Amino acid sequence: MPFVDSHCHINFPELAEKMGDLLENMHGNDVISALCVSVNLQDFPQVLALAEQHPNIYASVGVHPDYENVDEPDVAHLVRLAKHPKVIAIGETGLDYFRLKGDLDWQRARFRTHIQAARESGKPLVIHTREAGADTLRIMTEQKAEEACGVMHCFTETWEVAEAALAMGFYISFSGIVTFKNAKALKEVAQRVPLERILIETDSPYLAPVPHRGKLNQPAYVKHVAEEIALLRGISLEEVGRRTTENFVRLFKTEHIAQ
Questions:
Q1: Among 119, 174, 221, 247, which is most exposed with the fewest C-beta within 10 angstroms?
Q2: What is the pLDDT of residues 214-232, one digit of tens each?
């Protein structure tokens, strides 16, 4: 039963220094591939290097909405970097009104830049939204994000936000948060999203799922997210693994995904 971690940050130092063990643990837990997601342009070469070194690791390119005072991407630069065959997505991008307050026009402008780059490059978007559902959907609509498609990663918003994103052709990705006991509303969303639009992820090194909550997360633990989805929906773990892997391949066009 293959699994794919659709969103992780294994280039971060606490995971990169354990790369051998990390890859071995992935293999031991049937996690056949992972998407290492870029958060700024400065560290993008590290992300790309991992993807080039390991056939089952892919990369994205983008600047996270939480990163202030960093090199600001423009559309042409993102499109150029996205031409690399191991770069399969634009992002992560989006809006975060939880960590940052005040005038966030720069965050919204950056989000628009990423959507334009995704449309131009033909690569899907990896969207981060936290306490910013209405503005995220508004900008997605204004910028015709449905032409690029993509995924709402580490989803924690309401069913109404999920429904609107689904209507634009987006996928919904669940992280270890869905395994937390207090995530009742999110569990209900996970029961309602069509199975053909679900992805699973770790967002490692963060948000380790139960039974590893509070510990350093890693792609191998995405299996626990799949177990929770299976439990919530009353289907087999094998079906969750198969369907979420198929969804990843369909969205990110990784037909030759490493086995």
A1: 119
A2: 999 999 999 999 999 999 9
